[in-house]
Design goal:
402 residues, alpha+beta, Jelly Rolls, 3 domains, twelve-stranded mixed beta sheet, ten-stranded antiparallel beta sheet, 24 strands, globular
Amino acid sequence: MTELYKLRNQIKHYEWGSPELIPRFLGIHNEKNVPCAEMWMGSHASAPSHVVPDENAGVHLLKGTVTLEEFTDGELPFLFKLLAVEKPLSIQAHPNKEQAAEGFKRENAEGLTFKSPRRNYRDGNHKPEIMCAITPFKLMAGFRKKNEIYASLETLIKIIPQVKEIITPLLRAMNTDTLAVFFRILFGLSDLQKEYLCSFLIKTDVPDTDAISPEQWKYVRSFSTQYPFDPAILSPLYLNLFTLLPFQAVYIPAGVLHSYISGFGVELMANSDNVLRGGLTPKHVDIPELMNIVNFNSYMPPVFTVDDSSPWIRYPAPCDEFSLNLIRGGAEKIIFPVSGQAICLVTEGELHAGNCSFKKGESFFIPSARDNNAVLDFSGNFSLFAAIAEKNSANMKSASGG
């Protein structure tokens, strides 16, 4: 029989987090009302999960609590997170494996410490990620089509003719092969140009047009107020802005610019903390290095929608480190064919598995199977997300893209 191990996870208190969503989900009281942004589940050295002692599971033989890395005698290939976004995250992209290895080696040779604010690469791994909504989740991801960006900027000039001199070079850049020239010109604006542009964006009401929606303009004005000297205030005009409904997911590959704006969900990624930022943040922004890794082609990440009739859904993610799965219990037992290591997070109801029960907000670790016949029975009325260190399983049905 495969044992299950309850986890105690660490919460990251980034300023963009919500003081309510994660505490409410976990059933804990946030006395100091601090922002709770992320709960990390995994073995990453920055915030490893701990195995909770349990006499029934034999964990009492260990001295106190141990990290998941100590317990498994090695790192998991993925990092699983619960995410609560109240304020927009920085616009960012992540390197592929080759870029990460080269950047990590280079910054080590330069003598940059891991705590240095100038550090871009904190490990040598890539960081593809999949994000799945628990509540409606607003985000920006991938460059819009060139003609759409052009139309938005052209409309901006018509509404605010005073910014024509600043915007016209960006329009000309649409005639190049990729959006790299556009991006370089945008982030090459002088402080005076950025301040001048911002002064008009903040005070102008843009009518609803085919080229600029009220939602896009709302975020342009909001970003202009928060980050007046940041060219990324125009990001809602050049990045795809969309909303995931509950249980919809989006996969973000290497090199795709993105920013999470608001909402509550889970995020699964390769076990890495490499982030290169492109604006909307007081943190370190390295535009030349960012441009080395960004995909400057128009790209709309596919949104995956679940089939309500299936008890087990696998969200497609074309990488070898993980698969994200949504499992929903009901009248019949669900067989969990254990092979790769897994972390499960219960999101609704109560789950019974083996000799254990887990309720909403609780998470547990499933070790690798000792043999190919090892299985688990899941029963009860529940829903959970399972991060599995394998790409496929016999019971999984893939979510559909759209």
